[in-house]
Amino acid sequence: MKFGLRLRGGLLATLIMFGAPVVAPVGAVFVSSSVLAQTVQSISVQGNRRVEVETIRSYFKPGPGGRLDQGAIDDGLKALIETGLFQDVRINRGPGGQIVVSVVENPVIGRIAFEGNKKIKDEQLTLEVQSKARGTFSRAMVQSDTLRIAEIYRRSGRYDVRVTPEVIEQPNNRVDLVFTIEEGVKTGVKSIEFVGNNAFSSYRLRDVIKTRETNLLSFLGSGDVYDPDRVEADRDLIRRFYLKNGYADVQVVAALTEYDPEKKGFNVTFKIEEGAQYRVGAVDFRSSIPNFDPSSMRGYSRVHAGSLYNVESVEKSVEEMQIEASRRGYAFAVVRPGGDRNFEAHTVSVVFNIDEGPRTYIERINLRGNTRTRDYVIRREFDISEGDAYNRALVDRAERRLKNLDYFKSVKITTEPGSSSDRVILIVDMEEKSTGDFSVSGGYSTTDGALAEVSISERNLLGRGLFAKASVTYGQYARGYSLSFVEPYLLDYRVALGLDLYQRQQLANNYISYGTKTLGFSPRLGFSLREDLSLQLRYSIYQQEITLPSYLANCNNNPGSAAFNPSPAYAAANGIDLSSSGGLGCYSDGEASLPVRRELASGKTLTSALGYTLTYNTLDNNKNPSDGLLIDFRQDFAGVGGDVSYLKTVADGKYYAPLVSDIVGLVRLQGGILTKMNDDLRMLDHFQMGPNLVRGFAPNGIGPRDLNPFGSRDALGGTKYWGASLELQMPFWFLPKEVGLKGAVYADAGGLYDYKGPTSWTTTNEVNVPGCIPSTFDPSTTGTCTGLVYDDSKVIRSSVGVGLIWQSPFGPLRFDYAVPLSKGKYDRTQEFRFGGGTTF
């Protein structure tokens, strides 16, 4: 398609005056020199169809005396051309000295079509182009639209795109505009290299950036698509990573990108100048504000002498100090950090200067881009409002909170001058994204067997910031459903209210002889005490019952019952011959443990409990941590009504630390105590442990166990447990980072003991209830009924093993092989274990 060239009237006039020959291309502008040499009284318009005569005349502004001079004619000509309404404009001399403006109007666009586009829909492209149906056709605008379409495809990683505009003429000066698109293949990132990195390996740095190398699983994501903006953002991520680890002089000099035509992709190289690693030499606090004690800010500093210099810690310290100063009434206080480097000792002396800032107030907070999210949902993330003193720390905190909501693709808060010099306007620009999720998940583990889940959730329900989720689970040994709802701002306070309704059914399997059915409801309140400290208060009420196969609970010592099936002890005491059952009576086909059948006879049990969880979290990444501390402390008190009472206390701490060559160390300590209150403890309320405490053991494979040799030998659980684990996680350096595979070696130790559940069971007429084990199973002797016989030895269980961790596109998967080193006499082992799931 050819585009005409437009020449301005002033240029042509100059050429004509000097006698230069001009060859006019299509759409050129002609102006007679004789016309330009004189002034005229009126303007005549020719060739217009849709544009009114008076509209065209209005572009020519007469000078003094109502006459048009040369400059006015040139200006009018330029203005007409710039409207884009005409494909040709000519000015000539008419009868009687008139100026004759001859125009050829641009056609009207009948329709706009896109052909060949598969990856980007017509609707999206229509919104991006400036040319519109029923609008005026402009060749310059079409050229701009062509470039815009190509740019959109390049942003999605298709640099081989070809866009060709085609104009199809129609009657009545109308045209159809068709963009033919050859999308080409996706242009990915074939390699990512780092130059100058000595402190951190290229493997580690690839984990810091967002850009990924193309691999076999890249079709499940878009991180490998070349995006120059993302590469530029990666430079800042690398720089921030080094600054967080003490490299105060680091510079990411360049991010070089080169297209490789053979690989049909880009090679990205980051050049880094690391510099030396610094530690904090000294920390000082200074104030220029009268009556303000700077040393009172020491408790809000996250920077300490001798620690590794961390820019993020400095920034968080500044934020907390500035907010605290504002709380004390110093609304305009500004905290400015300073650093004095000692290049020989490699230390940085940090000084926090607290000064009086400019007295600036917030005039307005303008929100832009929230088409779905309600204004108040955004405004409540601000700790400041219109009319308050402008505090940059609080503005930055609000921006971070808005990003953490995960409602928006991007959030940016900028300032504009207000109505006076001491007023600013906050502009909050947002781009919303989809917040709903429908997923079908499946998985398999050696504990629960095959499992499938269907769930639907919405993080921003009705644009009000509410969370709702419904899920249904159906598996080989586990089934149920759950409904969850969260109001993050209860009564406009920063308190989250959660409501959970659930029903779960656990079926008997290789590890337990019984099944359980649980129906419960739990409201909870969540508080953020600090950025790294949170508190949750909860109330739980649930109904639970045990189910058993009939053959595991078929002992009946009542001779008058049609189901009379006596235990060996009863038969021996009453002279009943059990020779037909080998002398075992009801034990001939096995029998569940006494506490299990006692729960079965009790029927449904109601538990009503109050509890809380205190969480301290400094992890650098919650999904794939490599540094930081996570501590959970939980307590639940049952006995606020209901049928049971106890106090359960649990603590779990994990500490991650980066070691050498991308190896991450993990130390985990855990423990729990179950305390009896008023009523006897149920077996179901005891702690049950296995690979969740010491790997290499089966589920419910550790701790006190029923010793009935002809029964199901159920695990009884314990009231006390402790565990310690040491693990080293390391990447497979020979595999691409994007594969998400890493290995682990570990050692576990722990113990579960002190069973305090029921050990005997008699009816009102003192008849021995099935499960009471005699001292001998010889039917010829009476023996002595000793009640429940069980093992509760305080043996330390330990194991060592290796694991394979895969952050797969199908969800996290983990495979473990552990060998027990020490165990109890009746423990059950399981050396291989795996589990995981998927969403598709």
Describe what this molecule looks like in 3D.
This protein is α+β, with helices and mostly antiparallel strands and 840 residues long. 15% of the residues lie in helices and 39% in strands. The strands form seven sheets. Strands 16-17-18-19-20-21-22-23-24-25-26-28-29-31-32-33 form a 16-stranded antiparallel beta barrel. It is elongated, with a radius of gyration of 39 Å. The model is unreliable at 1-40 and 763-786 (pLDDT under 50).
Which key terms come to mind for this protein?
about 850 residues; alpha+beta; disordered N terminus; 33 strands
In short:
With 840 residues, the chain is an alpha+beta fold. The protein is built from 13 helices and 33 strands. The radius of gyration is 39 Å and the shape is elongated.
Distance separating the two termini: 45 Å
Radius of gyration: 39 Å
Which residues form runs of ≥5 with pLDDT under 50?
1-40, 763-786
Mean residue pLDDT:
83
Sequence-ordered SSE layout with sheet pairings:
Blueprint: H1 9-17, H2 33-36, E1 43-46, H3 53-57, H4 70-82, E2 86-93, E3 99-105, E4 108-115, H5 122-128, H6 139-155, E5 162-170, E6 174-182, E7 188-195, H7 202-206, H8 228-244, E8 251-260, E9 265-273, E10 279-287, H9 311-327, E11 333-342, E12 347-356, E13 361-368, H10 375-379, H11 392-404, E14 408-417, E15 423-432, E16 436-445, E17 449-461, E18 466-475, E19 478-487, E20 495-506, E21 515-530, E22 533-547, H12 568-573, H13 594-602, E23 605-617, E24 628-638, E25 646-658, E26 664-676, E27 705-706, E28 720-731, E29 741-753, E30 790-791, E31 797-808, E32 811-822, E33 832-839
Parallel strand pairs: 1-3, 4-6, 7-9, 10-12, 13-15
Antiparallel strand pairs: 2-3, 5-6, 8-9, 11-12, 14-15, 16-17, 16-33, 17-18, 18-19, 19-20, 20-21, 21-22, 22-23, 23-24, 24-25, 25-26, 26-28, 27-30, 28-29, 29-31, 31-32, 32-33
